[in-house]
Structure formats: structure tokens, C-alpha cells
DNA sequence: AGGGTACTGTAGACACTCTACAGAATATAT
DNA sequence: ATATATTCTGTAGAGTGTCTACAGTACCCT
């Protein structure tokens, strides 16, 4: 009886980093909030599991693309806020254009076709 | 000095099956030709390595989505021709709509934004 | 005290692509 | 005939990244 069975889609490998970096472009945020933002923005289509989220954040931090500091969240709980570093912005731009190229390539192969000849 | 440095994009996990099934929608074909078709159709953006291709074909066959038979290729070599089964067509439709939903979701999160508020 | 929510985290399974290697069969050239 | 290129199929193993499942802290509310 859930109001919307949202038909979730699994993340394709390599896309989570991009989603996180893109989310942080709007300003610093913490893991829990990042996951919710992605979920909400994608109209509940994408859901990030904690087992993917936190390793990804640590990975991105180790790469120097994001930096962390403990602060207090809106709800008054301790939370690790991440922000984009300059190198992170470059990485975001790179991954975003890679994604666009890939999505375009997929579109080319998947195109309606019918007229295979021509 | 290559005429076009094609800037290849790595395949995202889970997309190869879809590309293969889509290629076979145009008619039976063998591994080597399938890979070339994907590469050409994607304007050289996507390249399928043999280490990905053949395991994928065997996987799809084991699932009953494609069926194989040995025949002779255009060039007169023995080649294993694959064709889409009825179940394969359903699978193709399913994976295609999944991809479209995913691509749309990515677009929602990556959208120009700027106006985060509103 | 009990349950809910917000928040971070780890371990291990699993799936899929990649690089690198290997081999057969045919054609072409020298 | 021997070499070389092309067409075609295949395997082994590494690497990567997502998932499920589990674990724990802290605060709030009744």
C-alpha cells in the first residue's frame, strides 16, 4: 500500500562518484544528506546504499577531490561535512563530459533504427 | 598522427548485454561482427574487448536470450552466429527501458542547476 | 524503557569489464 | 614454402565498484 512503488534502478558502476561530486557543487554536505539529495533529485529513481556511499566518500577524499570536517547538522547531530576541492571540480567536469559522451554513444547504438540500411 | 584520436569511453558495467541484444535485433551476427558494429555505430566511442565480448555472449546464451549456430562468415571463415530468441526480445525491451530510466535519472541530478533554490 | 530517527561505518559477496595471452584457419606475398 | 596479416573464438586473472547485511553512537519522544 505504499503510495509510490518507485521502481528503483541500480547504479551503474562508476556513476556514484559523479553523482556525489555533482551534489557537492551546490555546497558542502554530509553523507546522509548527499544520499537523500540524490534520491530526491532523481525522483526516487536512484537510491544510494550506505555500503556504497561511505566507501565512495572515503575514496573521493583519498583522491583529494573532496575534503571533510566534522560539524553539526541541521538536526543537531554530529556529521562529517564534505566540500569540493579545486581538484574535485576538475574531476567533476571530466567525469561529467565522460558521462555525456557515453550516454550519447549508447543513444547512437540504441537509436530507433528500423532503417538499418540507408 | 592518427586521423582521429577517438577518445574511447569505458563501458559502464551492465551495458554490454544491452548493446549486444540491440545489435542482434537487426539480424543474426557473430561475435567479431557484433563488436565491430557497436564500435562503428557509436562513432568509435565504444570499443568492446574480446575479454568482455565472449564471456558476455556465453552468458546471454546461458540465459536463453540468444541462440547460436556455426556458419560461414562473409569472409568465408567459420563463425558462431547468434540470434535473438523470443525471451531475448523481452529482455532487450526490459533493459532498454531500464537504461532510459537510468539515463533520465542521471540527467535530473546533473542538470545545469545554478538555481539550486527555487 | 522503548522505539524511532539521524548519522557513520565495515565485511564480504557478487558481477562485469579489462589486459594479456593463446590458438586455429585462411589469404597474400615473396 | 615460409612469413605475415586478418578473421575469428576463447580463457585466466586482476581490478573496480555496487550491493546486502551487520554494527554502533547519539539524540528525541512518549
Describe this entry's structure for a reader.
The structure is a homodimer of 118-residue chains. With 118 residues, chain A is an alpha+beta fold. Chain A has one domain (15-117): Arc Repressor Mutant, subunit A (Orthogonal Bundle). In chain A, 50% of the residues lie in helices and 14% in strands. Chain A has 4 helices and 3 strands. Chain A has helices at 15-24, 31-41, 50-62, 86-110; strands at 29-30, 66-72, 78-84. In chain A, strands 1-3-2 form a 3-stranded antiparallel sheet. In chain A, a hairpin with a 5-residue loop joins strand 2 and strand 3 (78-84). In chain A, helix 1 packs across helix 2 (31-41) and helix 1 crosses helix 4. The A-B interface holds A 7, 9-10, 12-15, 18-19, 22-23, 25-27, 38, 41-43, 45-46, 96, 98-99, 101-106, 108-110, 113, 116 and B 7, 9-10, 12-15, 18-19, 22-23, 25-27, 38, 41-43, 45-46, 96, 98-99, 101-106, 108-110, 113, 116. Chain B binds a DNA duplex (30 and 30 nucleotides) through residues 10-14, 16-17, 30-33, 48-59, 73, 75-80.
Note the topology:
Two copies of one chain form a homodimer.
Chain A: H1 15-24, E1 29-30, H2 31-41, H3 50-62, E2 66-72, E3 78-84, H4 86-110
Antiparallel strand pairs in A: 1-3, 2-3
Chain B binds a DNA duplex (30 and 30 nucleotides) through helix 2, helix 3 and strand 3.
Amino acid at each position: 500500500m505504499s503510495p509510490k512503488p518507485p521502481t528503483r534502478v541500480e547504479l551503474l558502476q562508476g556513476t556514484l562518484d559523479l553523482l556525489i561530486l555533482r551534489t557537492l557543487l551546490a555546497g558542502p554536505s554530509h553523507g546522509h544528506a548527499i544520499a537523500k539529495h540524490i534520491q530526491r533529485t532523481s525522483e526516487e529513481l536512484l537510491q544510494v546504499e550506505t555500503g556504497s556511499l561511505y566507501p565512495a566518500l572515503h575514496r573521493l577524499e583519498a583522491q583529494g577531490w573532496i575534503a571533510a570536517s566534522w560539524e553539526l547538522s541541521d538536526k543537531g547531530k554530529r556529521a562529517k561535512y564534505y566540500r569540493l576541492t579545486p581538484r574535485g571540480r576538475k574531476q567533476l567536469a571530466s567525469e561529467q563530459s565522460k558521462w555525456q559522451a557515453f550516454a550519447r554513444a549508447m543513444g547512437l547504438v540504441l537509436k530507433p533504427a528500423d532503417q538499418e540500411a540507408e
